[in-house]
Structure formats: C-alpha cells, structure tokens
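Bench notes, afternoon.
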Amino acid sequence: AKFGKNTAGKYEYVDVKGGDSKKRFIVETNLPGEFEIARPTTRYLSLLAHLPRVFVGTPEDLKRLVRIMCFEIRRSMKRAEIHVPPWRRNGYMQAKWFGHYK
C-alpha cells in the first residue's frame, strides 16, 4: 500500500479514541528515537532532548511536531553537508503515523 508517494511499512504505536469525547490520541513510546540522525548539530540535539520520551497527544499535535522536526533534520544535515535520506523527510515520517493501516 502507498501513502502519497511513500510505501506503507510496518510501524507500531497506540491509537486511542476517548470514550464520550470521541477525541483521538496517539501514544508513541520512543518519540526521540524516531528522529535520531547522523552527525546532529548542537541545536538539533537540544531540540531532541526536549522531546518527551513517551508522547501522548492528538494527531494534530503530532503532525505539527513531525513537520518541525523534519525541518530541523533538513537544517542539521545540510549544515553537516549530509544528504537527507527519504526516510527522514516529512512525507515519509508522517506516513508512519498517518498512513493507511490494517
């Protein structure tokens, strides 16, 4: 299956729908681990250190956070003169949590 131009892969997280509120929450048990990169800048390491180890939030919150972190990945890797691999780009990262699933 595909999500945009990204192939769906196997990825696990907890997706919770609140009782009466019908509000949806995503629980990611190792959020900083999803954003580790080679030769990060000091700025990037600082941002990574501020991420909660266990993320519990709405899909909108996670989408925003992923977009920001992918921008910072690009900035950090550009500074280190490293090519940004496809699996560290926003579309691919978003597909982990928001792609089609069974």
